[in-house]
From TrEMBL:
SUPFAM superfamilies: Resolvase-like. It comes from Sphingobium fuliginis ATCC 27551. Residues 178-303 form the Recombinase domain. Residues 402-472 form a coiled coil. This is Recombinase domain-containing protein. One of its GO terms (molecular function) is DNA strand exchange activity. CDD domains: Ser_Recombinase. The keyword Transmembrane does not apply. Keywords: Coiled coil, DNA recombination, DNA-binding. The keyword DNA-binding applies.
Length: 590
């Protein structure tokens, strides 16, 4: 008789132990003693029978499907060490699963007792069926007890850290840290070689992103500088990748924060449990820089290494007919010679022939707007008219005087979020019938509300101080530094060129909502907040400039006063936004 051996264990860590060896030895010995011909061995490594993972998504489920498709020789047995290798689901679910799989002709036999589990066996021997039910109850109950104990253990660890009785929940930590047993704390991984100093590498990543460098370029530069990627064995990546740079930039562990989570097998992020724990890890990035970088809009890749133009308008340009993106086409290189076949006239291209065209029309897909727009003319027009507004003080590395204040503000905001979240939790508990008469919870809600109010006042105060401290340079100085960045776009030095390009792209991404290329060959540029608009012809000449906020606020207030209306400021702000939208729609429709 043919047989297939099925082996399963629930934890990947058990792979290092003897679970596989024990099961394969017992099942093989059972098959040999009974004269079974073993066709193959099916293994579910790290698959839980308690959750039914091996049945639903594991190899056992796939084996059942093979029986359904008649891909397994008829009469083949599936040999398992014992019943709980198959499932630890509740008894009724086990019966339901067996009822569904028995029609496929599958039969199971356990190596420990020689128990046959099949439709015929269950119908012929009711005592065996009751034994199966009893074993299912026992296995599931045992697994549930272990699961509950494990959950309680983790909750006890989390409580210990939150109450200050424990320093850590587990030794697992981000790749730039390690757990120091002697010091009983997490410490940053440092090294005399800056390529191996992970704290410095994380700080470098944040500093570069803070100046507008995109994830892809940061990863590329790390690889070019010979900085090895992190990880061990199979988990060590082949070089740096933009996705990993993104994860570092958005991981609050860099400011010392840890968010406890409960994660089921197969889940990547899990479910948040409780509030984030501050100062769990050593802080290596300031809260202000973390907030700034996390909130920054990703700049499209600037691709270095070429002195010629790159698409500084990437991600902003759209067709005005079908709303698909415009693509960047290079039709000729400066200096290329062309000969007219009819006249023999030789022409030398004086500039790069770079154009923007609707991607849909270019592919013949849902658009007939086939016009091409000269990229150089449009890009120069945008830079000439918008760069002075787009490049603001925060794009120039002159923040040292405000760093401390910005850090205090970021910390105060996070503390406010913590108070508000705790207050909400306390409020939810007061609405729970089980705690309805618990005065301590009601008092805690009141206290937390008072603390949140005080923290909110501090945030408003620091916000005002920071706004007042952002001293601006004179208009002449600002124009000078903008001109310097503009000139650096075509620098011979690759690093200077890349830095200027990323700075300009980041600035445009923060200011511009979209650049629309219309069928009448005009180009419209609108700001993100809808307050500003520019209109150019296809040669880059400015046709119109619109400031949709001029006079609106003053006009609305003056009219309200003249009518002696009792007008709420929020209503005024809402009406202003509606007027902006109407004017912008009118501009786009003209």
């Amino acid at each position: 008789m043919d047989a297939i051996i099925y082996i399963r264990w629930s934890s990947l860590e058990q792979t290092k132990g003897d679970s596989y060896t024990r099961q394969i030895n017992r099942c093989s010995a059972f098959c040999e003693a009974n004269g079974y011909n073993v066709l193959e061995t099916v293994v579910d490594e790290g698959r839980s029978a308690y959750t039914g993972e091996n049945i639903h998504t594991g190899n056992l489920g796939k084996l059942v499907e093979r029986f359904e498709r008649r891909e397994v020789p008829q009469g083949t047995l599936v040999v398992v060490e014992q019943l709980d290798r198959l499932t630890r689901l509740p008894a009724l679910e086990v019966v339901g699963w067996l009822t569904r799989v028995f029609p496929t002709g599958i039969r199971f036999v356990t190596a420990d007792r020689g128990t046959m589990v099949s439709r015929a066996a269950m119908e012929a021997d009711q005592l065996s069926f009751m034994s199966l039910i009893f074993d299912s109850f026992r296995s599931h109950g045992e697994s549930k007890r272990k699961s509950d104990l494990l959950l309680d253990s983790w909750q006890s660890r989390r409580n210990g850290v939150a109450e200050g009785r424990k320093r850590n929940i587990t030794g697992v930590c981000p790749a730039w840290l390690r757990w120091d047993r002697e010091a009983n704390e997490f410490i940053a991984i440092s090294d005399p070689d800056p390529r191996l100093d992970r704290k410095l590498i994380v700080q470098r990543i944040f500093n570069e992103r803070d100046t507008g460098v995109g994830h892809a370029i940061i990863a590329r530069k790390l690889n070019e500088d010979g900085i090895p990627s992190w990880g061990v064995g199979k988990r060590k990546a082949d070089g740096w990748h933009p996705s990993y740079v993104y994860k570092i930039l958005h991981n609050p562990a860099v400011i010392g924060e840890f968010q406890p989570r409960s994660r089921r097998k197969g889940e990547v992020t899990g479910t948040k449990i409780g509030q984030p724990i501050p100062d769990y890890y050593p802080q290596i990035i300031s809260p202000a820089q973390f907030e700034r970088v996390s909130a920054a809009k990703q700049v499209m890749n600037v691709g270095g290494g070429t002195k010629g133009r790159v698409n500084l308008l990437a991600g902003l340009v759209y067709c005005g007919v079908c709303n698909q993106r415009m693509i960047y086409l290079k039709k000729a290189n400066a200096g290329r010679t062309r000969t007219n076949p009819k006249t023999g006239t030789i022409t030398i291209d004086k500039s790069n022939g770079i154009y923007l065209k609707c991607s849909g029309a270019h592919r013949g897909h849902r658009c007939d707007h086939k016009a091409s727009f000269n990229y150089n003319w449009i890009a120069d027009a945008v830079l000439d008219n918008l760069l002075n507004s787009a490049l603001r003080d925060n794009h120039f590395e002159q923040r040292s005087a405000m760093v401390q204040l910005a850090d205090r503000l970021a910390s105060a905001r996070r503390e406010l979020e913590r108070f508000e979240a705790q207050a909400q939790t306390a409020l939810d508990m007061t609405l729970d019938p089980a705690f309805k008469h618990d005065q301590r919870i009601k008092q805690r809600y009141v206290d937390l509300g008072r603390q949140a109010d005080q923290q909110r006042e501090l945030v408003d105060k620091l916000d005002a101080e920071l706004a007042a401290s952002k001293g601006q340079v004179s208009p002449a100085e600002h124009l000078s530094r903008v001109a310097s960045v503009r000139n650096s776009l075509d620098s011979e030095d690759e690093r200077i060129r890349d830095a200027a390009r990323t700075k300009v792209m980041d600035a445009l991404q923060r200011l511009v909502d979209r650049i629309t290329f219309k069928s009448d060959r005009t180009v419209e540029v609108s700001a993100l907040d809808g307050s500003l608009g520019w209109q150019f012809d296809d040669k880059g000449n400015l046709l119109n400039r619109f400031d949709l906020t001029v006079g609106l606020h003053e006009e609305r207030l003056r009219n309200a006063i003249l009518r002696r209306d009792n007008v709420d400021r929020q209503d005024i702000a809402q009406e202003i936004e509606e007027m902006k939208k109407r004017r912008l729609d009118a501009l786009r429709g003209s």
